[in-house]
Backbone:
């Protein structure tokens, strides 16, 4: 009998033309570049890492004895691949989490074998090179448990019991063991050095993207109305339980009913009108909403599906047809439901039901797979569908990322989070075309991470990540819009400043009257500030040549007069004054607070600036300049002294510079 090594060499020569390396899958169009992620803990960050594993697998020589070389190679591949798949469960046994990458990019090199005559087994050594999304604590060599004999580890752990104590009590089958196995479960008596070994897995961090933007300008599609543009968004909510009946009002359907109610309120507050409801049998419904955003001339059409999304669930063909439509026609596709360990949204399986899926290669799209461990399952197969686009520099996109960005979870997520994730994500998209608020991918992912943990912090974080953004712009991709349609119905305060002097000042004006004066308000002005009755500040200045907004986020909206937006390094301070001339401030995204900087005569401050020593300079409503200097109070807290300004030039150099 030939040694296992000879068999492998013969089989590899036949299978891979003498390259000496077996690929688990083809490598072309591999997308495995930088990405940005939030971690498994509220203060953690996850990263993408290269994985290097040299390990051994035990193979039954008796089982292989009568196989052909091709069959032996297939058996070896299956056992090695199964052992590597058990990394999913291995990560779950530790405080710091991670998840291996599936699909393209995995390499196996079979290094050699020895025969154990006592057990009649071949002990095969191999090297595995791949990728994973891991908590940043995983760096260098980390020991993770892997079963010696993947084909028999389930039976060994079960020990003849009705349920296997070494895996999940609900997902207790042999087919799910790789994902759920856990040596620390009560009653699991698997032994180190007998049933499993601690493998030395080397992790090398890949650099994260730092400031990339969704290509908001390229999300828009041509509308049937030539004067408008369209933003088609498809939302899919899958049922928590398979084979559920789904009435059109979703009453009684766990999680869906709650998400439906929140969704309706959210879209109503965003100005959407429901245009249709469709019932598909008893398993799914489709609700369509629409809204025109006159600021940008964009019609947003949101189609929301509620129903069964599992690959083998009742009447799942309804979902598959709409999912195919979404991939081919949407600008944004958002899915929340079960991943089915990668099966539910497997493109090959779906295409077997509804035919070939052909997403537009010339249309930029965003897919958000808000399901359990979507990172290892739902990236490469979807990027492969977008390969071949012609980029702006005339080259051919071979990775599929030029016209596609994908948001994923590395870990499990929960249905209770769905409405929060949806609202945060969709708001970030819509606010561009409604309010001219542009968030980077990093800001969007951080916001999602924050709202998710706030909703269900006890469940940990799901390792949110953006995939495919390494070729995205690093500066804001501005969208055309009508400035006069940007502002709301009532303006509380508007002013422009030229050389730090007020040129124009409007208080309590309606939108129509304000529009007539708008051109004069900001014509040749260095800084322009507008406060709406909704508490939203619109401003233009040297740093922001287009209208930018900042929400006051306080229940006193309508009682403030806006003063100024002061930049000092990375700190942005919004100063406000109430109807009684009391000064308030708001730093970056913080809440509005009472300021110690009060005018001794209760006059209004009209212009403020700060120097690098935290001294504040300004001008009041009488045109007098002033200066605040911090002074320690008797109780040890900080207070501020008001002084006539001793250096008028300071205000010129410290305000919005």
Residues:
């Amino acid at each position: 009998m030939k040694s296992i090594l000879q068999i492998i060499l013969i089989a590899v020569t036949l299978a891979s033309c003498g390259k000496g390396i077996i690929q688990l899958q083809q490598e072309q169009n591999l997308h495995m570049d930088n990405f940005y992620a939030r971690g498994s803990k509220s203060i953690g960050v996850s990263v993408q890492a290269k994985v290097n594993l040299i390990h051994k697998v035990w193979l039954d020589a008796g089982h292989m004895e009568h196989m052909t070389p091709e069959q032996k190679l297939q058996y070896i591949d299956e056992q090695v691949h199964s052992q590597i798949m058990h990394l999913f469960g291995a990560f779950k046994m530790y405080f710091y989490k991670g998840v291996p990458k599936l699909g393209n990019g995995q390499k196996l090199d079979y290094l050699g074998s020895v025969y154990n005559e006592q057990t009649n087994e071949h002990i095969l050594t191999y090297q595995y090179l791949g990728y994973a999304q891991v908590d940043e604590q995983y760096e260098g060599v980390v020991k993770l448990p892997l079963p010696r004999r993947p084909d028999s580890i389930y039976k060994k752990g079960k020990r003849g019991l009705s349920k296997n104590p070494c895996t999940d009590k609900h997902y207790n089958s042999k087919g799910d063991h790789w994902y759920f196995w856990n040596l620390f479960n009560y009653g699991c008596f698997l032994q180190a050095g007998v049933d499993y070994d601690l493998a030395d897995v080397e992790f090398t961090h890949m650099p994260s993207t730092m400031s990339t933007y969704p290509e908001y300008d390229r999300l828009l599609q041509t509308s049937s109305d030539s004067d408008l543009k369209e933003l088609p968004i498809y939302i899919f909510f899958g049922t928590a339980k398979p084979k559920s009946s789904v009435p059109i009002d979703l009453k009684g359907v766990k999680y869906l009913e709650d998400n439906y109610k929140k969704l309706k309120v959210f879209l109503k507050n965003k100005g959407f009108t429901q245009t249709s409801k469709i019932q598909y049998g008893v398993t799914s419904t489709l609700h369509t909403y629409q809204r025109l955003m006159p600021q940008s001339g964009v019609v947003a059409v949101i189609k929301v599906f509620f129903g069964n999304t599992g690959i083998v669930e009742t009447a799942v063909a309804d979902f598959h047809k709409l999912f195919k439509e979404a991939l081919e026609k949407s600008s944004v596709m958002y899915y929340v439901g079960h991943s089915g360990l990668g099966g539910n949204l497997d493109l090959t399986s779906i295409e077997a039901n509804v035919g070939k899926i052909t997403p537009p290669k010339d249309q930029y799209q965003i897919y958000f797979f808000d399901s359990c461990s979507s990172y290892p399952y739902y990236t490469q197969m979807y990027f492969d569908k977008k390969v071949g686009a012609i980029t702006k520099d005339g080259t051919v996109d071979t990775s599929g990322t030029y016209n596609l960005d994908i948001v994923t979870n590395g870990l499990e997520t929960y249905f209770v989070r769905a409405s929060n994730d949806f609202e945060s994500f969709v708001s970030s998209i819509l606010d561009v075309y409604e309010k001219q608020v542009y968030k980077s991918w990093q800001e969007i992912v951080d916001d999602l991470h924050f709202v998710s943990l706030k909703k269900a912090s006890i469940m940990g974080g799901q390792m949110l990540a953006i995939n495919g953004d390494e070729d995205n712009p690093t500066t804001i991709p501005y969208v055309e819009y009508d400035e006069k349609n940007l502002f709301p119905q009532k303006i509380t305060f508007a002013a422009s400043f030229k050389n730090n002097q007020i040129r124009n000042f409007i208080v309590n004006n309606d939108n129509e009257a304000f529009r007539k004066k708008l051109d004069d308000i900001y014509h040749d002005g260095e800084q322009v500030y507008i406060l709406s009755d909704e508490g939203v500040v619109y401003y233009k200045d040297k740093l922001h040549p287009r209208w930018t907004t900042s929400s006051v986020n306080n229940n006193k909206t309508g009682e403030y007069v806006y003063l100024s937006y002061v930049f000092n390094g990375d700190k942005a301070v919004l100063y406000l004054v109430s109807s009684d001339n009391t000064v308030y401030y708001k730093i970056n995204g913080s809440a509005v607070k009472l300021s110690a900087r009060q005018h001794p005569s209760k006059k209004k401050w009209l212009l403020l600036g700060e120097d690098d020593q935290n001294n504040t300079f300004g001008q009041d409503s009488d045109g007098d300049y002033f200066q605040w200097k911090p002074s320690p109070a008797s109780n040890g807290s900080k207070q501020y002294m008001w002084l006539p300004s001793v250096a008028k030039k300071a205000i010129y150099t410290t305000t919005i510079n």
